[in-house]
Amino acid sequence: MTDAALAPDRSSETLARFARLRLWIFGIPALILVYLTYVFLAFEGPRIIAEADGENGRILLADMVSYKVHVTRDHGTGAVEIAMEGERKGRYPDGEGPEWVSLDAGETVVELGDGYLVTLIGETETRFEIPGYGTITATASRSGGVEAVYPEGPMPDWINAASNRVAITTEAGRVNITRSATTVMRYFPGWELFFFTLDSPYHGLGVGEVMSRALGGEAAEIWQDFWLNDMWRHKEVAWAIFETILMAFIGTFGAALIALVTAFFAARTFTRFALVRQVFRRLHDFLRGVDGLIWTVILSRAYGPGPLTGALAMMLTEIGTFGKLFSETLENVDQKQIEGVRSTGAGALTRARFGVIPQVMPVFLSQILYSFESNTRSATVIGAITGGGIGLLLTQAIITQKDWEEVTYYIILTVLMVFAMDALSGWARRKLIKGA
User: Fold this and answer.
1) Has residue 198 got a pLDDT over 80?
2) Angle formed by the axes of helices 404-429 and 54-65, to 10°?
3) I need a labelling partner for 254 at 20 to 30 A (CA). Which of 60, 68, 123, 301 fits?
4) Structural domain of 10
5) Which of 176, 339, 325, 220 is nearest to 263 (CA)?
6) How many domains does the chain have?
7) Are residues 259 and 355 located together in one domain of the fold?
8) 309 lies in a domain?
């Protein structure tokens, strides 16, 4: 056939190729978009967006990076209590408080700044003066609920009013009035009492003065007050970090020792019997096929909560992972080095020691150290279930729904712990593998 006769066939073939290419270029992204749309609708994305409350998010962020002082009046006795974060461990002594709270007989005045003023009158009456809006007067009783009088006009959205509760959220602070108590909350940036509690002689002192006292012979007392801080519990937190790292260490390196043995039985080059290989390979598949969190639940049910339970759960999953990785590495070793050791008359263990281990150890160490680094993060989640490590403290702080600054503290410590493990892992790889 002539070139002129072949030209139409080539042209149609080229067009067909372009058509298939367009299908791949536009069809695959379209399918992904359809799938993401389905996921968005299946996970009730529209409802979540509609119910999202930006004000609650703002309050949460404020709680995480600041502290608040609670001024609480009991409607039964009329007693006024002032405490940081509402905790008794941060409570001011009776009759004392910050300078913006005036404690008088029968009347407590709380200045929130910028003209916002809360007055607690008697046992049940509250008056809140709000610049640009007016004055809210509320009276509470344990039997009749909360009766409030508001300025004329529509109710603003920053006031949540019901028969038994009135919640007022302003830029200066928050006021919650219930049948049992009235609580005024004022926010300040930072984490107060992080270093010293109110009963410490070093509370309120500047850094320079604390350092001067430390150099003057009070270093032990200063450290004791910091280390045994009742609110931030630095001693307990340090032990929790140690527990978390210990869980990851036992789970990772314990699994590596066991997998180093089982991997030889799963490797084709070291186990001739197919049945034995399949048994160990399926064992590895089973162990790593069950997620570590599931093992955690099972072992917690069998042996009770605790850090050791979490370490064992992590170990079971890692035995399966290491067993597969190690066996695949063993199947790719250089047989010539093994034959060289065999020619000396060495037995199986000696061949493995001098012909196999030197070849695979750099790869094994790299995999172990990477898993140790990863399991440090996993130990935080597992610890939340088994009741150990920093994960337990993090869960407890979240459950209270008020200690969000502690949540931030624990998250920061977890991230720093991961950074430290990453640096340690990199250093160990350089020293043990590259010999630097």
Assistant:
1) yes
2) 70
3) 301
4) 3-48
5) 325
6) 3
7) yes
8) yes
Q: Which amino acid is at 83?
A: A
pTM of the complete model? 0.76
- Here the tokens at position 184 are 């005024």
pLDDT, tens digit (0-9, with 9 covering 90-100), for 63-94: 778 888 999 999 888 889 998 876 777 888 88
| Rounded Cα–Cα distance for residues 278 and 275 (Å) | 5
CATH number at residue 402: 1.10.3720.10
Tell me the pLDDT tens digit for each residue of 303-335. 888 888 889 999 999 999 999 999 888 887 767
By C-alpha distance, which of 378, 247, 386 is closest to 303?
Answer: 386
Choose the final residue of a domain: 126, 158, 189.
189
Cα-Cα end-to-end distance for the chain = 69
CA distance 139 to 136: 10
Q: Please check whether residues 9 and 126 belong to one and the same domain.
A: no
Q: What is the pLDDT of residues 113-163, one digit of tens each?
A: 889 999 999 888 999 999 989 999 999 887 778 999 999 888 898 899 888
CB 191 within 8 A of CB 404: no
pLDDT digits (tens, 9 = 90+) for 362-386: 888 888 988 998 888 888 888 888 7
Q: Provide the token pair at 338.
A: 């093994």
3-state SS, the chain, equals: CCHHHHHHHHHHHHHHHHHHHHHHHHHHHHHHHHHHHHHHHHCCHHHHHHHCCHHHHHHHHHHHHEEEEEEEEECCCCCEEEEECCCHHHECCCCCCCCCEEEECCEEEEEEECCEEEEEECCCEEEEEECCCEEEEEEEECCCEEEEECCCCCCCCCEEECCCEEEEECCCCEEEEECCEEEEEEEEECCCCCCCCCCCCCCCCCHHHHHHHHHHHHHHHHHHHHHCCCCCCHHHHHHHHHHHHHHHHHHHHHHHHHHHHHHHHHCCCCCCCHHHHHHHHHHHHHHHHCCHHHHHHHHHHHHCCCHHHHHHHHHHHHHHHHHHHHHHHHCCCCHHHHHHHHCCCCCHHHHHHHHHHHHHHHHHHHHHHHHHHHHHHHHHHHHHHHCCHHHHHHHHHHHCCCCHHHHHHHHHHHHHHHHHHHHHHHHHHHHHHHCC
CA dist., res. 158 & res. 410, Å (int) = 31
